[in-house]
Amino acid sequence: MKEKTIKILFITLIAISFIGGSLGYFRPAIMGTGKHNFAVSANLEVTFNDVDTLTLKNNKPIYENDYKYKADYIDFSITGQNNTIEGCYTLYISVKEMTPNLKSEYFKWILYDLNKEQIYLEGDFSSYNNGDLKISNLMQLKRTTNDRYRLYIFLVNDEEENQTELLNSSFSATVKGVSNDACPPTLKETILAADVAISDANIDYAYTFEGGYFDWDTDSVLYDTSKESNGLYYTEDGTEENERVYFYRGRIENNYIIFGDYCWRIVRTVEDGSVRVRYAGEVILSEGIYTCPPKPALNNSVDVTIGNYVDFYINTNNKNDVDYRKSIVKETVESWYRDNIYKNGTNTAVTNLIADTPYCNDMTERVDDTTVYFGAYDRLKSRVTNASNPQYKCPSSTYAYTVAKGDLTYPIALLTADEVAYAGCISSNVYCTGYFLYTAGESWTMSPSHFSDLKSYLFITQARGELGPLVGSDSYSYGAYLSPALSLKNEARVLSGTGLYNDPYVIMTE
């Protein structure tokens, strides 16, 4: 295949044509050249250099993992018209002709980011319904930036399916870009603009955000007001590659967002630049205004969890019962995501903004006599030193679960006990009803605590907010609630709002 590069001066419109006849299995080949210029504003211009026509040729489907080697592609780059302008753009495939048999999960596209050397987004044509097919989120073109992409289109081979219906196909399309002179701020930018972040160097995590701690000598709860900590903080200790992570702690009121028709609370940034959020209930519509449920008060619970109490696992009297991948909890969370977020693949405007970040189910262990203590127990529940040392970094990549590794079906799971500790509560008998993650009911984390007497325990946030262990088995426990967590990609942008529950940040999804 002859490879061509299309250089776009800033972004307003890019068009790459695919022209095909009634052939069977095909792949595109580049033929022909052309040049066009379109000016749509005083600041934005797009220039086509050697615009290529793609002709679809007969070819058999390929295995999806071979797309880099066997699928045909086209490269294009996007640059600013001058170094004083910034803007945003979105990429689309604009289908001109496509026979109905190609509206199939086997007809795929992949947009590959050549700068980062990774897939940016991918999808198929199974739910295509005329017009333009969005293949990117709203992306910012920064000064001196040259965004380079490779677009693959191919048929996927499935040996277990009869794919003869894909024969006698025709397809033609253009790829275009739509630009904005100004970009709405990203969620991370909005977080940092709203509050001044403070280093966590002076936080003692043996104390709650209110300065509460448990005195083992007097067997009582005491408070030290000098240990209070509320607000936006950052840490570079206990993170992946010592990357800075920003996190909320304590009594926070301005971290509500609306995303995918649900409310969420911002918990922290992730080392890859995404933002982790936790489910906070259904959106409330009153007199044309969208709001979120306020944080529950003690004994006044509102629905900030999904479903009813659920057991973590089916008991097998084995320490590995705490493996999230095999749990009832995973099945429940992913079922909710499938029905309410994924929506059978039709909700791509939302799902394309969700990052496949790792979720840590830390099963590293220490054996003491007949008890197995898992990693989070030793970090968060030491009676000897009264210390608490949470960390965001998963101690073993084996227990850092992602969709890409095959551990998860969808990019959603639960918070860890460490994330709860950073947010302001500790593992002891100190009540913690004032911090922003309080749910007024027991809620699972995905952090194992210990294994003893043939029972496996996991950390939960208890009815009064504090962290504590609960047997996860259906044989010994009445279960706990679920508040799922997911991560929004770093290009997730805020359309409006101040972050308050009655004026939440609204995430742009179109």
Would you write up a description of this structure?
The protein is mostly beta strands and 510 residues long. The chain has 2 domains: 5-180, Jelly Rolls (Sandwich), CATH 2.60.120; 192-244 and 295-487, no CATH class. It contains 6 helices and 37 strands. The strands form 11 sheets. Strands 26-35-22-21-20-37-36 form a 7-stranded mixed sheet, covered by helices on one side. A hairpin with a 2-residue loop joins strand 31 (443-452) and strand 32 (455-461). Residues 1-58 have low confidence and may be disordered.
Q: Main β-sheet: number of strands, strand sense, barrel status?
A: 7 strands, mixed
Q: What is the number of helices?
A: 6
**SS-based structural class?**
mainly beta
Mean model confidence by pLDDT: 82
**Rg measurement, Å:** 26 Å
Helix content: under 10%
User: Stretches where pLDDT falls below 50 for ≥5 residues?
Assistant: 1-58
Could you tell me the strand content as a percent range?
Answer: 35-45%
In whole angstroms, the N-to-C terminal distance is: 35 Å
Number of strands: 37
For the biggest β-sheet, the strand order reads: 26-35-22-21-20-37-36
General form: globular
Indicate how many domains the architecture comprises.
2
